[in-house]
Design a protein that fits this description.
325 residues; alpha/beta; TIM Barrel; eight-stranded parallel barrel; 16% strand; globular; binds ligand PBG
Length: 325
């Protein structure tokens, strides 16, 4: 009987590289970026060390840095000066995200994929992802009309991709229809298809100055963490409505979902390594408890191994640097 000795293939760095099943590449990385109206200096986000609310000009500098490291795309979030009940700044052609998209398209044109997050929670005074009815419930169908306005404004401003993150039923179809009716057949949709009502978005809400009114939450529209099969239903629905790419979010606590979706669909699959996942790494590293760089790379590799084609991550810039070493 010949003895199997798997350690033979682990002996040297070159052997390990040769037999590696998963490759993480700079092409897999998308950097989430924030642009804030009415500031003259970039503002640090204290629960996301190294992440800033950018001014229009510091945003351009940041994207240059990412471009120079070979990163193919960014996803943009805006923080308006004034919020209201419908989040109308989200589709104002002069609103902060539209202006910033215009700046980036001018500067980089097609060199970077410009993904615009499509939601109203950063723009509403109550912090919900849609219109809130008098009984406190978010009105699905009334909200779809707002999303259609936003998609058109983002396309007009220069986005290549719009990424609806509000988890309203029928949002992809509504947005596709609106874009096509205005001649934006080329703008693609990255659907936040399986987005869970997660406690891991906390630091993000600091980054966009969002507090959900009356101690509320998003459990009435985002997915319930116990459900994985439901994620498949959500993803298939979004694809049937016209999603060009789909996303699972968060990433690490939902690797089983990523893996399951990967085996069900053929469209590109994204995963969002969210703010809380990044913050945990940074906090433990700052305490000297873990090697943050290595743990960060291990996180991204694991998400790739589970089946994601690309990853939205606050680690994008540093990961690109680590990959070049
Ligand atoms: C909603 C949106 C959220 C995130 C991305 N888009 C927050 C939420 O659903 O409450 C979270 C991203 C992160 O935590 O990094 N517009």
């Amino acid at each position: 009987m010949i003895e199997r000795r798997p350690r033979r293939l682990r002996r040297t760095e070159a052997l390990r590289r040769l037999v590696a099943e998963t490759q993480l590449s700079v092409n897999d990385l998308v950097a989430p970026l924030f642009v804030r109206e009415g500031v003259t200096e970039p503002q640090p986000v204290h629960s996301l060390p190294g992440v800033f609310q950018h001014t229009r000009s510091s945003l351009i500098e940041e994207v240059k840095k990412l471009r120079d490291r070979g990163i193919p795309g960014i996803v943009l979030f805006g923080i308006p000066e004034k919020k209201d009940s419908t989040g109308s700044e989200a589709w104002n052609p002069e609103g902060i995200v539209q202006q910033a998209l215009g700046d980036l398209r001018n500067e980089f044109d097609d060199e970077m994929v410009l993904i615009a997050d499509l939601c109203v929670d950063e723009y509403t005074d109550h912090g919900h992802c849609g219109i809130v009815k008098s009984n406190g419930v978010v009105d699905n169908d009334a909200t779809l009309e707002l999303y259609q306005n936003i998609a058109i404004a983002q396309a007009e401003a220069g986005a290549h991709v719009t990424a609806p993150s509000g988890m309203m039923d029928g949002q992809v179809k509504a947005i596709r229809t609106a874009l096509d009716s205005k001649g934006y057949e080329d703008i693609s949709i990255l659907a936040y298809a399986a987005k869970y009502a997660s406690a891991l978005y906390g630091p993000f809400r600091d980054a966009v100055d969002v507090e959900i009114a009356d101690g509320g939450d998003r459990k009435g529209y985002q997915q319930d963490p116990p459900n994985a099969r439901e994620a498949v239903t959500e993803v298939l629905l979004d694809i049937s409505e016209g999603a060009d790419m789909v996303m699972v979010k968060p990433a690490l606590s939902y690797l089983d979902v990523i893996s399951q979706i990967r085996s069900e669909v053929n469209v590109p699959l994204a995963a969002y390594h969210v703010s809380g996942e990044y913050a945990m790494v940074e906090a433990a590293a700052a305490n000297g408890w873990i090697d943050g760089e290595s743990v960060g790379m291990e996180h991204l590799l694991s998400i790739k191994r589970a089946g994601a084609d690309f990853i939205l991550t606050y680690l994008a810039c540093r990961a690109a640097e680590n990959l070049q070493k």
